[in-house]
Write a structure and sequence with these properties.
The protein is α+β, with helices and mostly antiparallel strands. The protein has two domains: about 100 residues, PH-domain like; about 50 residues, no CATH class. It is about 45% helix and about 30% strand. The protein is built from four helices and eight strands; from the N terminus they run E-E-H-H-E-E-E-E-H-E-E-H. The chain has a five-stranded antiparallel β-sheet, covered by helices on one side. A three-stranded antiparallel β-sheet has the order 6-7-8. A hairpin with a 2-residue loop joins strand 7 and strand 8. The chain is rod-shaped. The protein starts with a strand and ends with a helix.
Length: about 170
């Protein structure tokens, strides 16, 4: 879990934060993909005319195909969770508030959130913390994909700069 953030002073009290998100481990689907290949090959081979042996081959092939399908579902779900995790981000803290990449100014209260607090595997939940700003219009995501420790340190730093600049 290698994640963190960089600070770049920009002058006139402005500081750019660039978040390096933690990398989520991809699902270990390779062994199941091998099983899928075995299952496909066994279905393509002509059946063995010897009664019980043919049924066993078909049962093994069906189990392998089921395991491969489960692996594919896991891989698709992992990709979906990665998008929800909102990894990375860049923003500037200035005397006027928080400047987003598009130049918009957000003056709300910075806060931490974890969109996956009750979903997904534990390893993904632990690196799904995000820094957000609460505004009158809702919540604006500044950066995500961090561990709780890194996100808390970033929040403290942003609050320290905002108080110093206010």
């Amino acid at each position: 879990m290698d994640n963190g953030y960089d600070q770049q002073p920009l002058g006139r009290g402005r500081v750019r934060f660039i978040v390096q998100p933690a990398i989520a481990r991809p699902p270990r689907a390779f062994p199941l993909l091998v099983l899928a290949a075995v299952a496909i090959v066994s279905f393509l081979l002509p059946p063995n005319p010897g009664g019980p042996a043919a049924r066993v081959e078909r049962a093994v092939a069906a189990l392998a195909l089921g395991a491969a399908a489960a692996a594919m579902v896991r891989a698709i779900r992992a990709e979906h969770l990665e998008r929800l995790r909102s990894p990375g981000g860049e923003f500037v803290v200035s005397p006027r508030g928080v400047e987003l990449r598009d130049g918009a100014i957000v003056s709300g209260e910075p806060t931490l959130a974890n969109r996956l607090a009750s979903a997904g595997p534990r390893s993904v939940r632990e690196i799904s913390y995000a820094l957000c700003c609460r505004t009158a219009d809702g919540i604006v995501l500044l950066a995500g994909g961090m561990s709780e420790r890194v996100a808390s340190a970033l929040l403290r730093e942003v609050n320290r700069i905002l108080q110093r600049l206010a």
